[in-house]
Amino acid sequence: MQTHVHELLAAVPGTTRQIHSFHYGPGNASGKVYLQASLHADELPGMLVLWHLKQRLAQLEAAGLLRWSVVLVPVANPLGLEQVLMDVPQGRFDNDSRENFNRFFPDVSQQVGDCVQGLLTDDPASNLQLIRSSLRQALASQVPATQLQSMRLTLQALACDADIVLDLHCDFEAVQHLYLSPDFWPQVEPLARYLGARACFLTKEAGGQSFDECFTLFWEQMQARFPGRFSPPGFAVTVELRGVADVDHGLARQDCQALIQYLIQCKAIDGQAPCPPPLLNRPTPLAGVEPVMSPVGGLIVFCAQVGDYLEAGQTLAEIIDPITDRVTPVVCTRGGLLYVRSVRRMATAGMTIAHVAGAKAYRQGYLLSP
């Protein structure tokens, strides 16, 4: 195992922040897996999972069982970790730019396409390596103006040539779920089975140029520009490891074992993986997710648990005004799986308090939470 330390652009003199990456596997590996955790710095279950995975990979490497290189970044966002205001973590948005940490990753597809335009051959495998090399160079040529841009470029450069990219997040109170492009569902389905994912959301583009989509959309644009000219590239998946409070050794070991089994199934690790368990639910379109909002402010009293299936028009919460005694039911307009609900118990008018996964797409445009 090798540890690399990546210095970020210093915001002011006398300060420094670093990203640490841990590299396992043979130097002549035929493939690469990249995993990072806590890009939203207050989402910590993935950080614990990767801590457990570090121990397991060290054992597997010592036993000579790693076939691919595996890169881990357990603390992807040192900027956000420091953002604590009056004992409340502020890990989702950058305080300086007010940007979501998981948005606006650079798009260098035009630059890379122009670079390789006249260099591609009739060898798809060679062309893939050429595009990846040009992608690395394009990212290295970017000059960050802020520490946030420096962090994004560092993470993107570490992952850009991977065959499998797994970005570990979590939600408020939630069941295990995934976000991915429908093109990659055949490759990702075993991961969903091993993890016991209750929901898998498919979309070509959710909006916002998030970390996983900066790879997905890059390769989609390369394929549109150079159809059939290179071997199938890798894929990226956002893995939501339940809720923010699920920082638990038992759950982390369980998720770590699922990742190990998946990497064995992908031939990244030598061994015999068990058959994946049954898929708990078929994937559904991200455009079928209903954000359920409270029409008024007041105390939130949930009437349904995450993991419950709701009928259209079913009450999932009551909003109680303790001054007027008014009780306002909040219902979902479409049936589906209640996969996320808020950790807050005081609503403001117009606040999204839950998300319900429906089977049919009905939304358009920007599909992610702020």
Quick structural gist:
The chain is an alpha+beta fold and 370 residues long.
Helices, by number, come to: 8
Q: How many whole angstroms does the radius of gyration measure?
A: 21 Å
Do you know the CATH topology of the largest domain? Aminopeptidase
The overall average pLDDT, rounded, is: 97
Question: What's the order of the H and E elements?
Answer: EEEHEHEEHHHEEEHEHEHEEEEEEEEE
Largest sheet: spatial strand order: 1-2-4-3-7-11-9-10-12
Q: What's the architecture of the largest domain, going by CATH?
A: 3-Layer(aba) Sandwich
Roughly what percent helix? Answer: 25-40%
Specify the overall morphology.
Answer: globular
Strand tally is 20
Organism: Pseudomonas fluorescens
Domain Succinylglutamate desuccinylase/Aspartoacylase catalytic: 32-254
GO molecular function: hydrolase activity, acting on ester bonds; metal ion binding
Cofactor: Zn(2+)
Any overview of this molecule?
With 370 residues, the protein is an alpha+beta fold. The protein folds into two domains: 2-266, Zn peptidases (Aminopeptidase), CATH 3.40.630; 284-357, Beta Barrel (OB fold (Dihydrolipoamide Acetyltransferase, E2P)). The protein is 28% helix and 25% strand. The protein is built from eight helices and 20 strands. The strands form four sheets. A nine-stranded mixed β-sheet has the order 1-2-4-3-7-11-9-10-12, with helices on both faces. Strands 8, 13, 15, 18 and 20 form a five-stranded antiparallel β-sheet that branches. α1 crosses α8 (249-265), α3 (109-116) crosses α4 (124-141) and α6 (185-195) packs antiparallel against α8. It is globular. It starts with a strand and ends in a 13-residue tail after the last strand.
